[in-house]
Write a structure and sequence with these properties.
Blueprint: H1 27-37, H2 41-58, H3 63-94, E1 105-108, E2 117-118, E3 129-133, E4 141-148, H4 158-167, H5 173-177, E5 181-185, H6 189-193, E6 198-204
Antiparallel strand pairs: 1-3, 2-3, 2-4, 4-6, 5-6
Helix pairs in contact: 1-2, 1-3, 2-3
Length: 205
């Protein structure tokens, strides 16, 4: 038997201007960039990682988009962490103290409540930070009462605010006999604008 000699296959012919189709852009890469721009940090990071894996496996486009989404996701996550830390700090620094603290601590004057004892008595003027100590320790003054202004009151002026708080402060007969003196703390105009409506009466030891 014989067979005719096989003819070679003709060379492939491409029409002028023809190019193979370009691979598409990975949808996860686009989603990563969009969520990164929206400051959805963890979501952008997760989508960017998924997109990077898919791009390597499938040969699709979007590597730069995924990388940008991851970077924006990291920045967004750091922003949210910083914001959360700030909120926690504000809550901690705004929460009233227990009447008698277990250990010495520095606190904002607005955190003081009746029963708190101060290690030292700050000089006259605007008081922002105080050192609070257990009342069993040596202390210079004790908070004995509070005066609450009405929440809808207009700012009365510093002299009037001081006077209204002072009228509520009274020494007991025992305190008078011991030679104690009253110290009056009232809200400042700046504190009033931030919502501070509490005046304090302290007895200096």
């Amino acid at each position: 038997m014989s067979s005719p000699e096989a003819e070679p296959y003709p060379e492939a012919y491409y029409a002028p201007g023809w190019e193979p189709p370009r691979p598409g852009t990975d949808g996860f890469a686009i989603a990563s960039l969009v969520t990164g721009l929206l400051a959805l940090g963890p979501v952008a990071i997760a989508l960017g990682i998924v997109a990077s894996v898919r791009i390597r496996r499938r040969g699709t486009r979007g590597g730069r988009l995924a990388a940008a989404g991851i970077v924006l996701g990291v920045l967004g996550t750091l922003m949210w962490v910083a914001l959360l830390a700030l909120v926690v700090l504000v809550i901690v620094w705004s929460r009233p103290l227990p009447a008698d603290v277990e250990s010495a601590r520095t606190a904002r004057a607005q955190q003081l409540v009746v029963g708190n004892c101060l290690a030292t008595l700050p000089a006259d003027g605007d008081v922002s930070r105080v050192r609070v100590v257990p009342c069993a320790d040596d202390h210079a003054a004790t908070v004995v009462s509070e005066f609450e202004f009405a929440g809808d009151d207009e700012w009365p002026g510093q002299a009037q605010a001081d006077a209204r708080v002072a009228r509520s402060c009274v020494l007991t007969a025992k305190e008078e006999a011991a030679g104690a003196r009253l110290v009056v703390w009232s809200p400042t105009e700046e504190g009033w604008s931030r919502g501070d409506r509490t005046g304090l009466c302290l007895v200096a030891e």
